[in-house]
Design brief:
Length: 130
């Protein structure tokens, strides 16, 4: 089997054992990128609010942007990101009648919790020893 792997590598085709690392990045739209990185308890509260009152948790999360929460839109001004979150909340409220907004609201809340967890893991990095 080693001979087969080396033959593939000699021909310029990378094999699974050659140590190739593939990195995938998610391209986010402006509304999705405007979701703030909040503390975990606040994100869970917003998920709870979005589950029972579509758009309410998204509306609350818009105000965390004004309190300094980070988003994936660093080049946009804080007020622009705030209004993007307000727009997302109104879209969820208006389309909740046909169940689309309610489902979108729940997924939005789950994204908030996922972002809070991923931000928490980034903050808990082990300091490197010198």
């Amino acid at each position: 089997m080693d001979q087969k792997d080396t033959e593939m590598n000699e021909k310029g085709v990378t094999s699974s054992t050659s140590g190739v690392v593939v990195q995938v990045r998610e391209k986010k739209g402006p509304l999705r990128a405007a979701i703030p990185y909040m503390p975990f308890p606040v994100a869970v509260l917003c998920l709870f609010l979005n589950t029972f009152v579509p758009g309410l948790g998204t509306f609350v999360s818009a105000f965390t942007v004004l309190c300094g929460a980070r988003t994936d839109l660093p080049d946009r001004h804080m007020c622009c990101v705030f209004w993007l979150n307000i727009a997302a909340a109104f879209i969820q409220i208006l389309t909740a009648i046909i169940m689309v907004g309610w489902i979108m609201s729940i997924f939005w809340g789950m994204d908030m919790v996922i972002l809070a967890i991923s931000d928490g893991y980034r903050d808990q990095r082990v300091p490197q020893q010198v």
